[in-house]
């Protein structure tokens, strides 16, 4: 089943790391390649459940031009 | 010379590394090891917030039982209380903030930097070297600092970079604290703006196409963490400044990518700027206690990692105050404003800009005549820091300790008239002031809480009580604290 990003809803995610103890997986860290959100599957729902996150913190990465740029790149 | 005792100051000057400092803090009961297993979220955040409730005396907290990160160690709150700063400065841990402020002022201008060199193959930081299959999530016990941060921030790194146009200039080599958000196992964004030295280096690399190599130092000499954020001249070395301010050596070595790094840093991440690349960065809970939004920020590729054996990842809790950030930079925010004001107004006695990086400041001044303090306030607003940060400024007389808020409230209560308030509309303001109507622009407020001087009539038949004060009373207060056994 595709895992959706809690912040943008996208499904372009990858596993960054798994925390293990005695060979058992304790948690998995995911990264959304669309909006760059990082999350661990054991975090409180307020941070990682898109239905419980505050809407103001959801983003739509499909229009990057709507976001400010820190030190704009030099055009070449 | 420490006027209370010369024992702690000798110990403080023997500190060579963060580990040494944690040992020193532990010997004063100012560093604890968290006894229970913790989840990365929300446990670490909650413990850090709880510790921030004890601003005078909170200990550094070492975590070595983080679930899923066996054998990894994290420390927070190293600079999180006045007691820890007092020990760093070589004083008993119950030293007053005012005394520490004057101590820092007295060290100002020292040129006795000691920067001995250690060969890279003998430097503890290079004990373990990783050049392949780098995964920051595997090396560092990373976690989310605030609920809605965009990622797992590294909040207390000392970042070293050289000016791409003058790479051999030691003075122009910058060390600064910039927030870092990992993006994948071996990439991260770094937040800086063009007015920062680091921002200048990134901009220069971008304009010239030259490479920009950096070293991200974690777990640093406690003086570096404290002084790297102090605004000093562009061509002045933060290493020299921190060593001179501490009066003790900071040993340097070379990173694998040619930068001067601390020989005793716990972890050093070597990285290279990726030209033209910007990734979504943020939000991040920042020092005003509000989140800075999502922007697209410059990105770096990790090329190698060096670390000591069994390294300790040092991080900070930052967010709604009071947090370690406020203690870490408060005195070093206050001191430059004082030094700049003092040049033209020797009547300035002390500056307290501890609150949210100086969004509120309190200045004590020997009032000379009616309206004098207001003019001093206006000068404070034209200092480099005051320009963007001093939003609310309270002026008090020299007989009021600006670090004692009870005394400040007394002055506000008895010496302020409504006509003593000045509002300066539509001035420059830092972008992340949560109260701003338009980010980057705002109002400055001056409250003149100094006593009324001729030609201003004082009013009714009023005489202020003059309790005993001065060194004798300060010594008695110190003795009372010492008799409590707080040393």
TrEMBL record, chain A:
InterPro entries: VdcD-like (IPR047707). It comes from the Bacteria. NCBIfam families: VdcD. This is Vanillic acid non-oxidative decarboxylation protein.
Automatic annotation (TrEMBL), chain B:
It comes from the Bacteria. InterPro entries: PAD_UbiD-like, UbiD, UbiD-like_C, UbiD-like_N, UbiD_Rift_dom. Residues 327-449 form the 3-octaprenyl-4-hydroxybenzoate carboxy-lyase-like C-terminal domain. GO terms for molecular function: 4-hydroxy-3-polyprenylbenzoate decarboxylase activity. Keywords: Ubiquinone. The keyword Ribonucleoprotein does not apply. Residues 118-320 form the 3-octaprenyl-4-hydroxybenzoate carboxy-lyase-like Rift-related domain. GO terms for cellular component: cytosol. The keyword Magnesium does not apply. Pfam families: UbiD (PF01977), UbiD_C (PF20696), UbiD_N (PF20695). Residues 22-100 form the 3-octaprenyl-4-hydroxybenzoate carboxy-lyase-like N-terminal domain. Gene3D superfamilies: UbiD C-terminal domain-like. GO terms for biological process: ubiquinone biosynthetic process. This is Ubiquinone biosynthesis protein UbiD.
């Amino acid at each position: 089943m595709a895992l959706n990003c809690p912040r943008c809803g996208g499904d372009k995610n990858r596993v960054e790391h798994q925390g293990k103890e005695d060979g058992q997986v304790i948690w998995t860290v995911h990264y959304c390649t669309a909006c760059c959100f990082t999350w661990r599957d054991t975090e409180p729902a307020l941070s990682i459940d898109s239905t419980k996150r505050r809407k103001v913190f959801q983003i739509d990465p499909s229009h990057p031009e709507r976001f400010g740029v820190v030190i704009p790149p030099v055009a070449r | 010379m420490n006027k209370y005792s010369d024992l702690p100051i000798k110990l403080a000057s023997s500190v060579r590394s963060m580990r040494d400092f944690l040992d020193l803090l532990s010997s004063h009961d100012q560093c604890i090891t968290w006894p229970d297993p913790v989840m990365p979220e929300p446990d670490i955040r909650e413990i850090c917030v709880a510790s921030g409730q004890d601003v005078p005396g909170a200990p550094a907290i070492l975590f070595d039982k983080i679930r899923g990160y066996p054998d990894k160690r994290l420390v927070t709150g190293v600079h999180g209380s006045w007691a820890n700063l007092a020990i760093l400065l070589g004083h008993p841990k119950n030293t007053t903030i005012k005394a520490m402020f004057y101590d820092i002022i007295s060290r100002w201008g020292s040129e006795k930097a000691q920067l001995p060199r250690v060969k890279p193959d003998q430097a503890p930081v290079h004990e373990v070297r990783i050049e392949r299959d780098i995964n920051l999530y595997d090396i560092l016990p990373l976690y989310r600092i605030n609920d809605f941060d965009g990622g797992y921030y590294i909040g207390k790194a000392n970042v070293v970079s050289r000016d791409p146009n003058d790479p051999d200039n030691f003075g122009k080599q910058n060390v600064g604290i910039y927030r870092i958000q990992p993006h994948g196992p071996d990439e991260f964004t770094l937040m800086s703006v063009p007015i920062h030295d680091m921002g200048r280096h990134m901009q220069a690399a971008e304009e010239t196409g030259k490479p920009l190599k950096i070293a991200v130092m974690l777990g640093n000499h406690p003086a570096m963490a404290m002084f790297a954020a102090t605004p000093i001249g562009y061509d002045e070395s933060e290493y020299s400044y921190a060593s001179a301010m501490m009066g003790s050596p900071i040993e340097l070595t070379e990173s694998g990518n040619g930068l001067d790094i601390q020989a005793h840093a716990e972890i050093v991440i070597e990285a290279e700027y990726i030209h033209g690349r910007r990734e979504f960065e943020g939000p991040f809970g920042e020092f005003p206690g509000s989140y800075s939004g999502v922007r697209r920020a410059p990105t770096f590729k990790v090329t190698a990692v060096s670390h000591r054996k069994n390294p300790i990842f040092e991080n900070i809790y930052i967010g709604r105050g009071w947090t370690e950030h406020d203690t870490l930079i408060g005195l070093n925010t206050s001191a430059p404003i004082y030094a700049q004001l003092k040049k033209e107004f020797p009547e300035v006695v002390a500056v307290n800009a501890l609150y949210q990086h100086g969004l509120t400041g309190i200045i004590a001044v020997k009032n000379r005549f009616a309206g004098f303090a207001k003019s001093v306030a206006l000068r404070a607003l034209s200092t480099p820091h005051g320009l963007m940060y001093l939003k609310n400024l309270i002026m008090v007389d020299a007989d009021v300790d600006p670090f004692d808020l009870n005394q400040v409230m007394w002055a506000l209560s008895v010496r302020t008239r409504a006509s003593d308030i000045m509002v300066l509309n539509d001035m420059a303001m830092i972008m992340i002031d949560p109260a701003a109507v338009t980010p980057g622009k705002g109002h400055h407020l001056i409250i003149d809480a100094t006593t009324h001087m001729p030609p201003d009539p004082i009013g009714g038949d009023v005489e202020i009580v003059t309790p005993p004060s001065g060194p004798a009373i300060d010594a008695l207060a110190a003795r009372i604290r010492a008799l409590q056994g707080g040393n």
